[in-house]
Amino acid sequence: MKIIGTQEELKWVRRALANNCEGCIFEERCNQNASEEQKKHGKTLTSCEEFMARQITFVSEERTKTTK
Q1: Domain of life of the organism in this record (predicted)?
Q2: What is the maximum span of the chain, computed from C-alpha positions, in angstroms?
Q3: CA distance 17 to 27
Q4: pLDDT tens string 31-67
């Protein structure tokens, strides 16, 4: 696995992965999204993984090798 980012982003990734999202830079937005879904639908529909997928572009190293 390779994660590419700024030093600050890499520091955050290490901390978030080690602490079950404690200190996550998306915490406020994620909680806001969950609150809005709760009001609209009576439950939270978006998982953490789904929310993060909308915030971060994940690039498969294998995919980039095949396109070069």
Answers
A1: Bacteria
A2: 46
A3: 13
A4: 899 999 999 999 989 887 788 778 777 666 665 555 5
All structural domains of the chain with their residue ranges: 26-68
Q: Which residue has 């999202």 as its token pair?
A: 21
Residue 10 Cα distances to 26, 43, 51, angstroms: 14, 32, 19
pTM for this structure? Answer: 0.57
CB 23 within 8 A of CB 16: yes
The 3-state DSSP composition of the chain as helix, strand, coil percent (nearest 5) reads: 60, 0, 40
